[in-house]
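Final report, closing paragraph on structural work. Over the funding period we assembled a curated collection of sequence-structure pairs, and we close with a single example.
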Amino acid sequence: DQSKNFDTIITSQRENWGKWIKGKIDAQDFQNRALKYDKTGETEINLAEMNEHVTIN
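Its predicted structure, as stored:
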């Protein structure tokens, strides 16, 4: 069930994501970016450069 995997990832990465957001705010980096988590780890995505939608795999 993908929704359970999503919830597990959210719960396990919440602290790292919060630190990433705080770092962006502290650096006044307000670019259109997202932090994507998958099986290989985390990747910062520039949403302005994306040609397709991000999906939950």
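DSSP finds one helix and two strands in the chain. The helical segments are 2-26. We thank the funder for supporting this effort.
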